[in-house]
């Protein structure tokens, strides 16, 4: 359900929610920057890696890892990479890492997923995260769904073909990757976990993110056309990691989707976590994001969160929240060593609308400007 929900979710965009961010100012603000399109040669640019002289992209629609050229085209680095997602380079620039996932398009089941490590002298190492998940299934310790459901609740969920109660399932979707000292950290959107991967391809569990509970009230139950027996019932959804970044403080920062419907009825429930890299302990830094699909950290420790279903990039700095840029379809955001901010948007998947490409954009200061397509 975790990865399958995410895959299905990226094809649609919900908007119009009033966002709530506990502990952080929530006043609406006008965008402070505008996106400038640098490329329309992408389809699903799930992740970017911005260096001093390069912008790399992992495109899960084109199944490749590429480098942005000055004319907006892509120079292919790795082709035929199914479900290419996370991409990162090592601190010394000698290693390239990117995540891939093979998905059965009929069932949305992932049959293979891992981290590809390309190093000096032609080294090619594949860390098989799917095999590790099958063997260990780290989130099996958690219970999801409804605890002690009534017959009414069980019957309703079964009729909807939605799981009633269950332990963590075997599901791997290596989605994002960050370089750390001498190794890598992978955010797995299927396993609900962070994994460390050595340069030799050895996988270990770093952190398993806890369930994401939601308690239905009268309004949310009615909005989903659920019977009154759901009022007061808590459903433990899965926390779905979508990005991981290493902060200047040495801690890891992770964005998550709530593992269930990104619906106006249930509110904006995406989260930003701080994870201790030594103990794996995770604490919530901020919440109230509508489709937190990616994360970037600025030069001064500020956070940028791509809110796909809100169509914008949100900035969090010193406890204050503001809209950096409106950007429909945004799925990726990244900062460069020079402080520049880049983002990726997904191409239109609406069969009733004219086809539109995905884009790679650079965010620049200026008057707010609605995103355009070319």
Describe the 3D structure.
- The chain is mainly beta.
- The chain has one domain (2-365): Neuraminidase (6 Propeller).
- The protein is 8% helix and 45% strand.
- The chain has 4 helices and 28 strands.
- The strands form 8 sheets. Strands 1-28-27-26 form a 4-stranded antiparallel beta sheet, with no helix packed on it.
- The protein starts with a helix and ends in a 9-residue tail after the last strand.
- The relative contact order is 0.18.
- Residues 1-27 and 367-374 have low confidence and may be disordered.
Task: Summarize the structure in short.
The chain is mostly beta strands.
Q: Largest beta sheet: what is the strand line-up?
A: 1-28-27-26
Q: What is the CATH superfamily?
A: TolB, C-terminal domain
Second rung of CATH, namely the architecture? 6 Propeller
Shape: globular
Number of helices: 4
**Low-confidence segments:** 1-27, 367-374
Secondary structure: elements and pairs:
Blueprint: H1 2-9, E1 33-42, E2 45-50, E3 55-59, E4 64-68, E5 74-78, E6 87-89, E7 96-104, E8 109-118, E9 124-128, H2 129-136, E10 143-145, H3 151-159, E11 165-167, E12 174-180, E13 183-188, E14 193-198, E15 203-208, E16 212-215, H4 218-223, E17 234-237, E18 240-246, E19 252-257, E20 270-275, E21 282-289, E22 292-297, E23 303-307, E24 312-317, E25 320-326, E26 330-335, E27 341-345, E28 358-365
What characteristics describe this protein?
disordered N terminus; four-stranded antiparallel β-sheet; disordered C terminus; Neuraminidase; 374 residues; mainly beta; 4 helices
